[in-house]
Design brief:
The structure holds 2 protein chains of 2 kinds. Chain A is mainly α. Chain A has 2 domains: 2-67 and 238-276, no CATH class; 71-219, MetI-like (MetI-like fold). Helix content of chain A is 71%, strand content 0%. Helices cover 69% and strands 1% of the residues of chain B. In chain B, helix 5 (88-95) crosses helix 14, helix 6 packs parallel to helix 10 (191-215) and helix 8 crosses helix 12. The two termini of chain B are 18 Å apart. The chains are: A mainly alpha, B mainly alpha. Chains A and B meet through helix 1, helix 4, helix 5, helix 6 and helix 7 of A and helix 1, helix 2, helix 4, helix 6 and helix 7 of B.
Chain lengths: 281, 327
């Protein structure tokens, strides 16, 4: 009996590994193709293992005739991601504290408003959001790129509210009696204690912002504000027989995705907690 | 649809703040009972909420309400102010055959994507809900696509989908089984399923994580006991696993639904531009074209109202279905 369950478990593990490899295969193929020569990549039938490693594809993605990635775009992506996520974090923690621990008229209305907004993502209000930004003369500026995304505070505010509601009431009473202002409580107590929630929030928001395509596409038509997803979309849209060699394109995708893969591996636990609100062991 | 699944169920954390440790830091005050004080906090809450609410109002509330107003106007935004035209945009919408095609395409894209995502994710979660030494590494294989953007996926999958058995990896693999592969992105029948395949792939990590979280609340002993009693996998799924994870399905569906709503623009714009012959023209893409290519901002706003209604309708349908399943 025991032997048979152990055998079943072993089969299950093998199946789990094989299925996992299949699911990860597009990404594994991406990495393999980014290291192939262009001749090998276009050979028939298609090959999946590089016969020799062409690391030059990666430098080619940044320089010369084959350039795909402008350093400016890389910088723009970094500015957009840190700006939008950093600002939104500040809005969400302070707002979260207010609706979690402070008592005021209209609290449930505000909470409900945030909740409803979760089901109306910016993609469905693209046109009016663009017009608001346009009327504020913010199109083709960093604030125009960043502010409308930072303002999507529904998810973050509710995440922090949920976390802060579980902080014991006595803690806040004690601090108040000690003469601490809400501002001190916020800075010295709530922000440090909410670190796990912050980690979960950052994990999800950084990925979302770095990978965002539609808003930067309309908010920064000009080109100098172009972010990396637009760069990829451009090489992705050009048909076959294009100027950029396919292996350099694959290298570019790896370069753009790698920061997020590293982030994801580093914060996988926080990402999972942010999504589920509980520990997956 | 209430916010309950996202705001409460999903985030109902089991984490406990270590009360003793926290209070220990301020033990001197802990001994004194707090005097009765007003629970209202005066204007302070609004100070803390103001930055958030102001931004939220400008870039979320105003666009939603303003979009509704704008749908009764025509405007190309470069000339003067919007002109009130009453229901004209809605009349036009009802007689525009491309709108209905776009709605059907959107529904097909979402339903044929979200439903497989739910079933596959549950299967995957069951598969990786085992403990062994390198389980964390193996789970990473399942979760890592979550780091990919739609744009990056589009570039990679375009190459995987290359047509002809001699070119694309996928077509080569399929033809090895003696099946003639379809033309994928160039085919009127297969372009939309191809986009669904990419989006399912991108939606699986989040959905799998959610199911895994639910699965891990089922005690191991329960499944072991069932196995010892001779219950096979099918019976375990039916009698223990599904009842245990059923509540999570609504949240999985909502998260997937929102992810497919986003995918319905990014992938279409990068890979197909609505082609071939409008087969992949989703409503969001049609809105984008009307606004930013033709400059029909009033009409695009009316279509956005329809888009919100479509997503809202799907959420409502989800609620009805989940109510039926629960019964």
């Amino acid at each position: 009996m025991i032997r048979s369950t152990r055998f079943t478990k072993r089969i299950r593990i093998v199946v789990a590994v094989v299925v996992g490899l299949v699911l990860a295969s597009p990404m594994l193929y991406m990495v393999a193709a980014s290291l192939m020569s262009n001749t090998q990549l276009s050979v028939q039938p298609p090959q999946v293992i590089p016969s020799s490693l062409h690391f030059a594809n990666y430098s080619d993605a940044f320089t010369g005739m084959t350039q795909v990635i402008q350093l400016r775009s890389f910088l723009n992506s970094v500015i957009f991601t840190t700006g939008a996520v950093g600002l939104q974090w500040l809005l969400c923690v302070s707002g979260g504290l207010a609706i979690a621990k402070m008592h005021f008229r209209g609290r449930s209305f505000v909470t409900a408003m945030f909740a409803i907004s979760l089901f109306i993502p910016i993609i469905t209000t693209l046109i009016p959001t663009f017009i608001v930004t346009y009327e504020l003369h913010l199109i083709n500026t960093y604030p125009g790129l960043i502010l409308p995304i930072a303002a999507q505070t529904g998810f973050g505010t509710l995440l922090f509210r949920q976390y802060m509601r579980q902080m014991p009431e006595e803690l806040f009473d004690a601090a108040r009696i000690d003469g601490a202002s809400w501002w001190t409580i916020f800075r010295r107590l709530v922000v440090p204690l909410a670190k796990p929630a912050t980690a979960a929030y950052l994990a999800i928001s950084v990925l979302t912002a770095w990978n965002m395509y539609l808003w930067p596409l309309v908010a920064a038509e000009g080109g100098s504000l172009q972010v990396l997803t637009q760069t990829l979309a451009l090489v992705g849209t050009t048909g076959q027989g294009e100027v950029t060699p396919q292996n350099v394109i694959f290298a570019s995708v790896v370069i753009v995705t790698l920061p997020m893969i590293l982030v994801f591996i580093a914060v996988q636990g926080a990402f999972i907690r942010g999504l589920t609100g509980s520990g997956v062991e | 649809m209430s916010s309950r699944p996202l705001a409460s169920t999903a985030l109902s954390s089991r984490r406990r703040v270590r009360v003793g440790q926290l209070l220990g830091a301020r033990a001197s005050v802990g001994a004194m009972p707090p005097p009765p004080r007003s629970r209202r906090s005066g204007s302070t809450p609004w100070v803390f909420l103001a930055p958030n609410l102001i931004m939220f109002t400008i870039f979320v509330v105003v666009p939603i309400l303003g979009g509704l107003l704008l749908s009764f106007t025509t405007w190309d935004i470069t000339n003067g102010w919007p002109k009130w035209v009453g229901l004209a945009n809605y009349h036009r919408m009802f007689s525009d055959p491309l709108v209905w095609q776009a709605v059907v395409t959107t529904l097909k894209f979402i339903v044929f994507g979200v439903v497989p995502t739910i079933f596959i994710a549950l299967g995957l979660a069951i598969l990786i809900n085992v403990r062994f030494r390198f389980v964390a590494v193996v789970r990473s294989l399942y979760l890592i696509p979550a780091a990919m953007s739609y744009a990056a996926s589009a570039v990679v999958w375009r190459y995987i989908f290359l047509d002809g058995p001699g070119y694309g990896v996928l077509d080569y693999a399929i033809s090895r089984f003696g099946i003639t592969p379809p033309d994928w992105l160039a085919s009127q029948t297969w372009a939309l399923p191809a986009l669904d395949i990419i989006t399912v792939w991108l939606s699986l990590p989040a959905a799998t994580i959610l199911y895994l979280a639910a699965l891990q609340r089922i005690p191991d002993s329960l499944l072991e006991a069932a196995a010892l009693d001779g219950a096979g996998l099918v019976r375990q799924v039916r009698h223990i696993i599904w009842p245990g994870v059923r509540y999570m399905t609504v949240l999985v569906a909502i998260v997937a639904l929102l992810s497919f709503t986003n995918g319905s623009f990014d992938l279409v714009n990068i890979l197909t531009k609505g082609d071939p012959l409008y087969a992949t023209q989703t409503l969001i893409y049609y809105i984008f074209v009307n606004g930013f290519s033709y400059g029909f901002f009033g009409y695009a706003a009316a279509l956005s109202v329809l888009q919100i209604a479509v997503v809202g309708g799907l959420l409502l349908a989800l609620r009805v279905v989940s109510g039926l399943v629960r019964r």
